[in-house]
From TrEMBL:
Keyword Transcription regulation attached: no
Signal sequence extent: none
Name of the protein this chain belongs to: prephenate dehydrogenase
Domain of life: Bacteria
Species lineage: Bacteria, Pseudomonadati, Pseudomonadota, Alphaproteobacteria, Sphingomonadales
Gene Ontology biological-process annotations: tyrosine biosynthetic process
Pathway recorded for this protein: Amino-acid biosynthesis; L-tyrosine biosynthesis; (4-hydroxyphenyl)pyruvate from prephenate (NAD(+) route): step 1/1
Family to which the UniProt record says this protein belongs: Belongs to the prephenate/arogenate dehydrogenase family.
């Protein structure tokens, strides 16, 4: 039996709509209610039959829920939680999918002082956003990291883990501050680098816009996919995970300076050793079947 029978998804963008579709595909008996602050998104969600019900207010959407999943940008988590505070049923579990965990956990606890909260982060996504971009298989074979605060009811953690396993994810548990440091280097910094390199290329006076488009067939093209990611989401991620990102950025710029010196002084061995090491890391990722380089992730969009 599914761990929940009435799930409310708040924020019907890429992740929220993928959860709604995943529930339809993997837990068809579960009733899904959706809500989004944008009336346009709610209309689209109704038009594409994303949920059993799309409510017109956050409070109404949670009134009968046993699980509420907040799928809004991390900077909006506190406000979204505050909106449901007065209507949340006593036994309901609240979760979220935010890309940073520590600050979000604090915001959720402040808004929902009595609720059982089990924060989660599915490490799966694309550069798309909005209700039509989601797909049921997004979480298949991907990690979902749970960051429950100390003292969280283990039965609640198990139910949320079961929910994500049924959506196809594998579960890992971590302390929120550790999560934020790990994701700062594996996800947040790569996005910052992609935004920078695409911005720098388009600013170069000697390179025209049409040349940027015309010659972006190789490595640069991969950066442009990442740099097309949602501006609101990523603004919020960098402002929210500020400390960890700045720490990793400091390490990164020191390593970049070392590379700069190696190039300047013709230290070919240093370059060769680093590139050999990084090639082995890439091959390890591919061997583990986690190669996401293809734009459609090699997965079926159900
Ligand atoms: N995109 C990814 O790759 C990815 C992966 C994992 C986790 N996440 C996290 O998932 C969350 C959602 O990201 P997404 O990619 O689905 O974004 P999205 O832009 O596709 O969707 C976000 C939706 O939230 C709605 N919204 C904003 N504020 C709201 C509020 N106060 N109440 C109700 N609805 C509100 C917006 O109208 C929008 O429809 C973010 O916290 C993000 O960090 C994203
Ligand atoms: O592949 C992508 O497009 C993503 O950006 C996915 C990605 C990532 O960096 O891995 C982005 C943010 C998330 O919080 C989790 C996953």
């Amino acid at each position: 039996m599914p761990p929940f029978s009435r799930v409310t998804v708040i924020g019907l963008g890429l992740i929220g709509s993928s959860i709604a579709r995943g529930i339809r595909a993997r837990m068809p008996d579960v009733c899904v209610t959706g809500y989004d602050a944008s009336a346009e998104v709610r209309d689209t969600a109704r038009a594409i039959d994303l949920c059993d019900t799309v409510a017109d207010s956050a409070g109404a959407s949670v009134a009968e829920a046993d699980l509420v999943v907040l799928c809004v940008p991390v900077g909006a988590m506190g406000a979204a939680a505050a909106e449901i505070a007065g209507d949340l049923p006593a036994g309901a579990i609240v979760s979220d999918v935010g890309s940073c965990k520590q600050a979000v956990a604090t915001a959720l606890r402040e808004a929902l002082s009595e609720a059982v909260i089990v924060p989660a982060h599915p490490v799966a996504g694309t550069e798309q956003s909005g209700p039509e971009s989601g797909f049921a298989s997004l979480f298949h074979g991907r990690w979902c990291i749970l960051t429950p605060p100390e003292g969280t009811d283990p039965a609640a953690i198990d139910r949320v883990a079961d929910f994500w396993r049924r959506l196809g994810a594998e579960i890992e548990q971590m302390a929120p501050d550790h999560h934020d440091r790990v994701l700062a280097i594996t996800s947040h910094l790569p996005h910052l680098i992609a935004y920078t390199i695409v911005g720098t290329a388009s600013d170069l006076e000697e390179v025209t816009q049409s040349e940027v488009v015309k010659y972006s067939a190789g490595g640069f093209r991969d950066f442009t996919r990442i740099a097309a990611s949602d501006p609101t989401m990523w603004r919020d991620v960098f402002l929210t995970n500020r400390e960890a990102v700045l720490e990793m950025l400091q390490r990164f710029s020191e390593d970049l300076t070392a590379l700069q010196r190696a190039i300047r002084w013709g230290k070919g061995d240093e370059l060769f050793d680093l590139f050999t090491r990084t090639r082995a890391i890439r091959r390890g990722i591919v061997e583990q079947g986690q190669d996401d380089a293809k734009p459609d992730f090699g997965r079926t969009h159900e």
